[in-house]
Amino acid sequence: MSDTAPIAGQGAGVGRSGRVALFARAAGAGLAPVLTVVAALIVFWYLACIPMNAAQSVRDAARADIAVSPESPAERRVMGGLALALANPGVAIDGAYTQDRARLPAPHQVATELWNSTAAIAPTSPRSLIYHGWVTLSATGLGFLIGTGLGILLAVGIVHSRVMDMSVMPWAIVSQTIPIIAIAPMIIVVLYSIGIQGLVPKAVISAYLSFFPVIVGMVKGLRSPDAMQLDLLATYGASKSETFWKLRLPASMPYLFASLKIGFAAALIGAIVGELPTGATAGLGARLLAGSYYGQTVQIWSALFAAAILAALCVGLIGVIERALLAKMGMRR
Question: Would you say the pTM of this structure is higher than 0.85?
Answer without folding.
Answer: no
